[in-house]
Amino acid sequence: MKPHDDLKLFARARTRWTGNQGPRPSGEARDSGVPILSEAKTTAARATISQWPEYDQSPLIALPGLASTAGVGQIFYKDEANRFGLGSFKALGGAYAVYKVLADYLERQHGLGGVESSALLSGIHNDLTRNLTVASATDGNHGRSVAWGARLFGCECTIYIHAGVSGGREQALLDLGARVVRITGNYDESIRLCAEHARRDGMTVVSDTSWEGYRDIPTEVMAGYSVMASELIEQLGTQTPTHVFVQGGVGGIAATLAERFDREWGDDRPSFVVTEPETAACLFESAAAGRRTSVDVTEETLMAGLSCGDVSHLAWPVLSRLADHFITVEESLVAPAMKLLALAPYGDEPIVAGESAVPGLAGFLAAATSPTLAERMGIESESRIVLIGTEGATDPRLYQELTGLDPASVAVRGHEKRKTD
Ligand SMILES: Cc1ncc(COP(=O)(O)O)c(C=O)c1O
Questions:
Q1: How many whole angstroms from 330 Cα to the centroid of ligand 1?
Q2: Count: domains in the chain
Q3: Range(s) of the domain holding residue 347
Q4: Quick one: 308 and 391 in the same domain?
Q5: Rounded Cα–Cα distance for residues 282 and 110 (Å)
Q6: Burial of 230 per CB tally in 10 Å (0-12, 13-18, 19+)
Q7: Is the domain of 315 the same as that of 379?
Q8: How far away, in angstroms, is 340 Cα from ligand 1 center?
Q9: Fewest Cβ atoms nearer than 10 Å: which of 51, 64, 111, 120?
């Protein structure tokens, strides 16, 4: 099928693809990987997070107009723009891990076992928890979640940001009461410096990535993300997708979804596609090499949340087993993809999607409009596509600069459309 005129931009883009080097495990071979997230962990995370004030599942939006233009059966967009008012799915992970750190601290240091998040929210343990400082490196969204969790549950918080993090994202961290340290290097350096300062100053690192000897807290971060996966499975019901496209930074959200889908759907699980910026494609390079591989991020991408050169140690074994395709997305596709969702030219609901939310869409459109890629990835007229819209306008000024649109008015148009449908 020839690409629709509006989609030619995506068809022409430079898109690198690599398939997973390993065989697609099925049947018994599927069980050979030790799961990161047991059913007990995902159930506990959901039971806790669904009790937090203002919890609501994020919407799953059907985009029939875009689906018919792109020549597939259906497209669904899981929209994380309003998650707990923080603007991204990351709200689920960092804050949940802060709760787990504080509950663990109260048990170990003060003999208070089984403290629930509602008790921390009520402030009754604040005298004890305020002695603890959580620290994290971030390119925006994870740090916002950790800072929010620290404020909600009553502890101190220091966040490390790198040279490329926008002023708007820094201000959002300050507004949540975090102490912010800006370093001169890139994201991977901010992670190293945060861990070093935490050791020196007695802070507890709440990171969304994991490394040798540091796994437990990032596992809880991923348990928090799994709430989004469980919602999505329920929202889809019997409409099992054929393909899921998700953005990769260190690989935490991709691994969480891949593992949860594997548990749910087994051999019928969808083709799993990880999309990354060209300049920070550590998961892509790992897949191409057949082993965990780092890349040196020398050029900052617009897709700030994905500017990661080192793969999470927890995520890689899962993705090397369960992800099917890895693709890179050209920088020039970011603004057009954001506008496509905002302007909804094919009669769909307008959606506010930030820079790091759209590589899944851009990668899907690049694949669907390229006969070679579409064939490799099995995309055809009956395909049912799920896109994970991981953030909204987390930096509203940048959103406006890139799209020429005010995110608040796009959101209003989205609500109006939903009401009339
Ligand atoms: C909006 C957004 N999408 C996707 C990701 C990628 O998540 P991960 O680093 O777990 O791969 C991030 C990471 O910060 C993000 O902020």
A1: 17
A2: 2
A3: 5-89+219-420
A4: yes
A5: 42
A6: middle
A7: yes
A8: 21
A9: 111
Which ligand 1 atom is the nearest neighbour of the CA of 391?
Answer: 1
Same domain, 355 and 365: yes
| Phi/psi at 158 (5° precision) | -125, 130
Nearest protein CA to atom 16 of ligand 1, as residue: 305
Is the Cβ atom of 169 under 6 angstroms away from ligand 1? Answer: no
Q: Is 139 a catalytic residue?
A: yes
Which CATH number is 235's domain given? Answer: 3.40.50.1100
Average pLDDT over residues 273-298: 95
Q: Is 349 helix (H, G, I), strand (E, B) or coil?
A: coil
Q: What is the pLDDT of residue 20?
A: 82
CA of 127 to the centre of ligand 1 (A): 34
Distance of CA 331 to the CA centre of its chain: 18
Cα–Cα distance between 184 and 164 in angstroms, integer? 9
Residue 210 CB–ligand 1 contact under 6 Å:
no
Are residue 340 and residue 322 in the same domain, yes or no?
A: yes
Ligand 1 near 249 CB (within 6 A): yes
Q: How many CA atoms lie within 13 A of 134 on its CB side?
A: 33
pLDDT of residue 6: 79
What gap in Å lies between CA 250 and CA 244, rounded to an integer?
18
Same domain flag for 178 and 297: no
Same domain, 259 and 167: no
Query: Among 174, 197, 217, where does a domain finish?
Result: 217
Atom of ligand 1 lying closest to residue 141 CA: 16
Residues 159 and 59 in one domain: no
**Chosen domain end from 217, 238, 269:** 217
Is the CB of 90 within 6 Å of ligand 1? yes
Nearest CA to ligand 1 atom 7: 249
User: Which ligand 1 atom minimizes the distance to the CA of 80?
Assistant: 1
310 CA distance to ligand 1 centroid (A)? 13
The per-residue pLDDT for range 346-382, each reduced to its tens digit, is 999 999 999 999 999 999 999 999 999 999 999 999 9
- Which residue in 78, 79, 100, 139 is the catalytic one? 139
pTM value is: 0.96
Q: How far is CA 286 from CA 310, 326, 330, in A?
A: 10, 10, 19
In the structure encoding, which two tokens stand for residue 41, read together?
A: 């962990």
Query: What is the per-residue pLDDT across 216-257, written as a single tens digit (0 to 9) for each?
Result: 999 999 999 999 999 999 999 999 999 999 999 999 999 999
Same domain flag for 127 and 233: no
